[in-house]
Amino acid sequence: MSVKMQRRLFTVQEYHLMSEAGVFSDRERVELIEGEIIQMAAIGRRHAARVDRLARMFSHIPESLVIFRVQNPICLNDNSEPQPDIALVKPRADFYEESLPNSEDILLLVEVADSTVNYDRDVKVPNYARSGIQEVWLWDLEVNCLEVYRDATADGYTSMQKFERGEQVSPLAFPEFVVSIDLILG
After folding, report:
1. Has this prediction a pTM greater than 0.85?
2. Which of 16, 65, 105, 164 has its CA 20 to 30 A from that of 78?
3. What's phi and psi for 123, nearest 5 deg?
4. Residues of the chain with confidence (pLDDT) below 70
């Protein structure tokens, strides 16, 4: 007779209590995804450079239109508090000090991935879709392309396009803001 083992999943509230209690060190990079505490991969040079390039590009969007967040948490639901590489969120006077941005606040999420691309694509991106985030960009460093996911449903995104060298893309929230794939690749 086989027994199915049950995993103990955590809520965002429990995750915060663990952090406040010192369960995680200051240097430990973790996030809560679908109730599981996930240790995040170390940030390599290529990953950091791509995030910095994207940060520089997105910083040209007027601050009256967006708050630009780099590797800061967002709250998707009671069981997920990921830390995407970049989040463009609606402006708010308190800069989200009172509560983290949620799916209604998020204009665009960007994940930059090398060793975690399959996890990001198969776990995080569908989680973002279920939460109602309308646009997610996944930068796949292994093949140097940008995957753009749009039109969220409970079953995932209904649209996915790949962009490579020589191409450009604009976020849905800022159609006049053109992003050059070549500029991101360097």
Report:
1. yes
2. 65
3. -115, -55
4. 1
